[in-house]
Amino acid sequence: METIVLGIGETLVRDDRRWSSWADWLGVPPHTLSALVGAAVAQGHDAADALRTLRPGMDVEAAYRARSAAGRGEHLDESDLYQDVRPALGELRAAGVRVVVAGNGSARAGELLRSLDLPADLVVTSAEWGVRKPDPEFFARVAEAAEAPPAATLYVGDHPADDLFPAAAAGLRTAHLRRGPYGHWWADHPDVVETAEFRIDALTELVALVRPPGAGAEAAGAGAIGPDAEGAGGEGSGEEEADGEETDAAGAAREGARRGALRSVR
Predict the structure, then answer these.
(1) 261: Cβ contacts below 8 Å, ≥ 6 apart
(2) Burial of 22 by CB count in 10 Å (0-12 exposed, 13-18 middle, 19+ buried)?
(3) pTM metric for this prediction
(4) What is the pLDDT of residues 38-64, one digit of tens each?
């Protein structure tokens, strides 16, 4: 692996502040908006549909501009980063890997991210490129920014429809990150399992993937989420397991419905 490219929201940056800010702007409790975001994710919809549920017909871009004009625009600082971001990116750079951060976001988000001085060779957002994921042109730009062949470039993200599927279609190698609403909810969907070359729980697992063949191979394998992992703490463990056959049947029905939904956004 010569280059690793990472998305932004729920890959590097927690979205807590984003949704809390929108809830405050719209005058609703944060938990109300969070619940609606969860519903959109579970249905395979754009999370921004939660905003349109609260305000039917809402122009999200216009509302974003209004927030900014009112002095309540985007803010981003160190506390918004997941704790594994700096260690993982630092180790990748130390291993000689080119690190690129490229994801959907405003020009302001790009400025804020660069001000954090992350251990990355390039930090860029969709607004700065003029094209958003999952547009194939975005991933053409990713391939160009990677400065490496597609077969030596790994794209890492949490969102199947915005990250995993279009990156794979562009010929890039892929890692699905089990993080954030999309990352957790769709992690075991058959399309995700089939498409993702690697499935990881933390960015620090990427370090094992860039080692020379034979060096740390066991560590790389241990980081992948496989079928056997579910019983050790996945969605089938804990209270549901103790509830017996009735819960198992209900869980199977719910899982079947969830897994059948993703193809509509692929």
Answers:
(1) 42, 43, 44
(2) buried
(3) 0.79
(4) 999 999 898 999 999 999 999 998 998
